[in-house]
Amino acid sequence: MFQFSVLASGSKANCTLVKTENTCFLIDCGLSSRECQRRIRELGIDPAHVQAILLTHEHRDHVFGVPVLSRQLDIPVFANQATARVIPRVNAVETFETGQEFNIGDISIRPFSIPHDAIEPVGFRLSAHGLVYAQATDLGRVTPLVTAAVRGAHALLLESNHDPDMLWSCGYPWELKQRISSQHGHLSNNSSSALLYETAHSDLRHVVLGHISENSNTPALALAEAARASEHISLASLRCANPYQATPLMDIAAESSSSSILRASNGC
Ligand SMILES: [Zn+2]
Ligand SMILES: [Zn+2]
User: Which-ligand-closest: CA of 10?
Assistant: First the structure.
């Protein structure tokens, strides 16, 4: 068994839960500790079973709840050294090297470098029981390393942040538009769907689109591009994550035969 739920995703808060029979941890926690634990309980999981929090980078929408949650659950925070130096005080820190595989319980974890305006941002490729989950959000562009890291995954969380036309015509200040669209900003729908098209394969089950902008994108636009990019394969689910509600707990080994595109779930 290898499952995941995106508890929150977007510019307000990001948090993902992954679990096997005996291992359970979070990636990031931009939610408050209380809200994070509420969403975990809603999935039928006792927050006391969470064993660690892994960090992708130090931005507030990824670390806001980490200090309190790590203390309340008495669990360590895993981060690379550069990120560990700049996060607020947490319960205990375990450092990893970007690019070096390590294990928590029966999940092996490979952090990989992503281009983003943080100190040493990473995505994660996780493997358990021959199944692979990969996530790449908060990246300005897709590098060959990112493509290699998500290739062959059975479940993906991919950033689909903005529609370029909507971004340039929205009310953001010029500097923010430049930051978002830069090589170290956030991934557009078309870059995200190009990555999906390039790496889609017949054993890919679940695709979640994340970090969707509420001002320069719509879930419908993001989904339409991703659906086009994956129309040659049969996914079990394609959905958007949002900051307000967790996705269902998805079984990475689920059969893809009951293919359905969940256009309207979670308010997307
Ligand atoms: Zn973010
Ligand atoms: Zn960020």
Answer: 1
Task: Convert the pLDDT of each residue in 200-228 to its tens digit.
Answer: 999 999 999 999 999 999 999 999 999 99
Strands 24-27 and 15-19: antiparallel
CA of 252 to the centre of ligand 1 (A): 24
The tally of domains found in the chain comes to: 1
How many whole angstroms from 57 Cα to the centroid of ligand 2? Answer: 7
Structural domain harbouring 204: 3-267
Query: Do 115 and 141 touch, CB atoms closer than 8 A?
Result: yes
- Say which CATH number the domain at 183 has: 3.60.15.10
Query: Whole-prediction pTM value?
Result: 0.93
Name the closest ligand to CA 135.
1
User: Torsions phi, psi of 235, nearest 5?
Assistant: -80, 150
